[in-house]
Amino acid sequence: MSQYSLRTFTIKYKIHIRKRCKMNFAKIIETVKNAFPVIMSRKKAIKMREHEEAFKDFFMNITHEMKQPLAAALGFVGRVVHEKCGELLNDDAKMYLQKAHIGLSAMELNIMRSLTEIAMLDFKDDESLAKVITDIQAVIIKPILYAHSDKIQEKGIRVENKIEFSKITLRTNRSCLSAVFGNLFNNSVKYGPQDCEIILDSYINAEEKRRYFSVSDSGDPLDEEFVKNRLFEMFQRADPTSKEGTGVGLCINRKILRLLGGDITYNREKHEFLFWLPIE
User: Fewer CB within a 10 Å sphere, N or C end of the chain?
Assistant: First the structure.
């Protein structure tokens, strides 16, 4: 090969290598450009997850710290109101202490429900859900009605509790069932009209081995489109303009019930939430 040919070959080879390098570099740049949004999205998701976990830890710590003094105050006021020392109080003092006791009961119920809802967000199975024989009226319904008694009286609500004398017992997780009942009843009290009627009922299906519970009220039924597409989805509210509620209650109710082996439905004609649990 002549010196000229060798020089020409060398030049062409260098040009070829440069072109290849430029092409490869361009591909690398393009790959990085395409991957950057994905990387940033993952980083953002990880960061959001970290913030969520930090918020949950903060919320759990705060509510845990509140539980002990709240329980102490509730117990003290309860003894003053309901035991012998209440006889030493005049009617006005009894009334104010009774209202304080109801308010503390409502606060305790809301804290427990919130703790249960937060815990259920990441719960994957029911293996850790402790189940005990539970008197539904005494342990679940009665505390809920008592905690809402001021609001019930204020709105002139009539509550027909068909569960009261049924002596229903069920092996279940008390905190979870209380959260479900509490959320459904609270929604009826909060969003129901003045002088409305709320009905609590229950029946058993022996063939299916299921215990059914229902919470209904005489308010307007939920929007048909909302019921069909969004009712049990996270962060969904029947009235998007309302500042009340977070839109997570019904979604978490369904998750809780499914973890307990049951489920929940809504009957628009009766404006009734019907849920069931297995009989063990």
Answer: N
